[in-house]
Amino acid sequence: MRLLVLLAAALFLMAVHAQAQVYAPYDGYDEYDGYGYNDPYSPYPPPLYDEPEPGYRPLQERREPSTRSAGGTITIATREHTLIYTTSWGEQFAYPIAVGREGKQWYGTTRVVSKRLHPEWRPTASMRQKNPRLPAVVKPGPANPLGTRAIYLADGLLRIHGTNDPTSIGTNASSGCFRMYREDVEELYDMVQPGTRVIVQR
Fold this sequence. Notes:
Elements: H1 2-19, E1 73-77, E2 82-86, E3 92-100, E4 108-117, H2 125-130, E5 149-153, E6 158-161, E7 172-174, E8 178-180, H3 182-191, E9 197-201
Parallel strand pairs: 1-9, 3-7, 6-8
Antiparallel strand pairs: 1-2, 2-3, 3-8, 4-5, 4-9, 5-6
């Protein structure tokens, strides 16, 4: 009798386990960091960020706002060389920036996909072809053109980042990315999270 009870219990546990699904932790943000296919200074525009359906409100907007939420919006005014971060509760932070040179600018709506503390810079093959003196990798440090922080937009095609040339802030200097002073990008980096909406205006 005891054997029958043990057998029935084992069959029940096997049936329950067979229906269970095991999911690995999601690490999709890492795929935006791979340099195998993305070009941070590509002339191609990033894919448009799909607008939510009218009336849709994510759960985080119903909670008490905090700096840890993905709420808020980054607005980039290209002509004014200004980046404005508006928190989900309406507080605004404005920063001077450098924008893309003529012909390297992009306008539209996208989102933050990932962030990198002390990023490496990897010049693309086309960059190294134009300038063979460029190394394959520039490690974090004062020579790194991404500075101390990088905020990746639209699958890594564009970034908001620091710079090793602060004199370029306020000008059309980059190949499409948005440069910030070190103190400013470090402050912004701490506030924004993946999912933050980004609007790039003329």
